[in-house]
């Protein structure tokens, strides 16, 4: 493996860090809202992050990956910011599953 990182990888990493910073600032945006609109959420990002780490030979737990994405332990983020989904959100989520499926 080369000691240098390609500029494209650096750009992707910078964009990913900016996305994480944005999501951390926007704790008012619930995961269910992200799932409804985009078909992915912070937990999906954590799963993808863990899968990438494991593909590179690293061992990472689900909780470690979530902490990397949320910037704090998931249980702490959930207690501070996660609200109960409304019936409207649940219905929209159900409908979106057909679209994002």
Automatic annotation (TrEMBL):
Record domain SMc04008-like: where: 29-94
Pfam families in alphabetical order: DUF1244 (PF06844)
InterPro entries (alphabetical): SMc04008-like_domain, SMc04008-like_sf
Q: Which Gene3D superfamilies match?
A: SMc04008-like
Q: What is this protein called?
A: SMc04008-like domain-containing protein
- State the organism named in the record: Rehaibacterium terrae
- Read off the lineage from the record: Bacteria, Pseudomonadati, Pseudomonadota, Gammaproteobacteria, Lysobacterales
């Amino acid at each position: 493996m080369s000691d240098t990182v390609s500029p494209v990888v650096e750009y992707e990493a910078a964009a990913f860090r900016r996305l994480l910073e944005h999501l951390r600032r926007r704790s008012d945006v619930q995961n269910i809202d992200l799932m409804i609109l985009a078909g992915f959420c912070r937990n999906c990002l954590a799963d993808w992050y863990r899968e990438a780490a494991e593909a590179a030979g690293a061992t990472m737990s689900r909780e470690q990956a979530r902490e990397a994405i949320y910037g704090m332990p998931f249980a702490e983020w959930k207690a501070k910011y996660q609200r109960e989904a409304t019936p409207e959100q649940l219905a929209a989520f159900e409908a979106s599953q057909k679209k994002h499926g």
